[in-house]
Amino acid sequence: MKPLTLDIRHEEMTLYMQPLREGGSLPGLVEASDGFRYVAKYRGAGHGTKALIAEFIGSEIARAAGFNVPELVLLDLDAAFGITEADEEIQDLLRGSEGLNLGLHFLSGALTWDVMANRTDPLTASRLVWLDAFLTNIDRTPRNTNMLLWNRELWLIDHGASLYFHHAWSDWHKAALSPFPYVKDHAMLAGASKLPEADAMIRSLITPGVIDAVVDAIPADWLEASGTDATVREQREVYRSFLNTRLSNSQIFVSHAIESRQKLV
């Protein structure tokens, strides 16, 4: 069987439009060489390229699981980009981000998904809880859902807080078997009444082949700049092993999510 591959486009940032101050890492709205607008995530922001790696893996795993996710594009930033920006903080961020960054296609007119006003069905809620428990994504709470309503559909954004084990880069085996206690704060937990069904459904979609394709597509440049002593190859193998271990032991975090939900309803 032919291995799966991801086709991620590569463009250059051509126009800095405005900062998006809703995000803690100060992403920006930019235009690229293809004429489209993107939300740019910068390598010079607080967590460096590890946040870009988490965003990349989280977004593509979510897409493979059947969720709507903005297209990811690799964005080059050169020394002249944003030179007219008057804000010194943003200038420093741009200068520290020269090289390869990450862009998410801008969903013009999208609205923040309000878990009280925008209802979804129990299976979708369960699939989303499963996804974030799998990715150990701590940033999908009622206060900050990181979900958008666009063209009357649910879209997922901002996966940079996923895979938090890689900030310490130690004892990943233990992290891979974590029940994910933060699930108690998940925005969709109360409505996630079909977690076993979600488990079966997503495990048929996120296969080891999908994980291989996503991990192999992480730009080597980001891994080289991640601040760890491990080689690029070693880092890929840790991400691959972490995700495969978590996938094959999904009953750990599914059972914990079910228990956590029972305390809410």
Please give a structural write-up.
- The structure is a single chain.
- Helix content is 37%, strand content 17%.
- It contains 9 helices and 8 strands.
- The chain has a 5-stranded mixed β-barrel with strand order 1-2-3-5-4.
Which strand order does the major sheet show? 1-2-3-5-4
Gyration radius (Cα, Å) is 18 Å
Task: Kindly estimate the percentage of residues that lie in beta strands according to DSSP.
Answer: 15-25%
Largest pleated sheet: 5 strands, mixed, barrel
Structural class: alpha+beta
Low-confidence parts, pLDDT < 50 over ≥5 residues? none
Q: Assign a percent range to the helix content.
A: 25-40%
Annotation, overall tally of beta strands: 8
> Looking at the structure, what is the overall shape?
globular
Q: Give the terminus-to-terminus CA distance.
A: 45 Å
SSE string, helices as H and strands as E: EEEHEHEEHEEHHHHHH
Features:
single chain, 265 residues, alpha+beta, 5-stranded mixed beta barrel, 3-stranded antiparallel sheet, 9 helices, 37% helix, 17% strand
Element layout with pairings:
Layout (H helix, E strand, L loop, with lengths): L8 E11 L8 E5 L4 E5 L6 H17 L7 E6 L10 H8 L3 E7 L5 E2 L9 H14 L11 E4 L2 E4 L15 H5 L18 H9 L4 H9 L3 H5 L7 H17 L1 H13 L3
Parallel strand pairs: 1-4
Antiparallel strand pairs: 1-2, 2-3, 3-5, 4-5, 6-7, 7-8
Helix pairs in contact: 1-6, 3-5, 3-9, 6-8
Task: State the gist of this model.
The protein is an alpha+beta fold and 265 residues long. Helix content is 37%, strand content 17%.
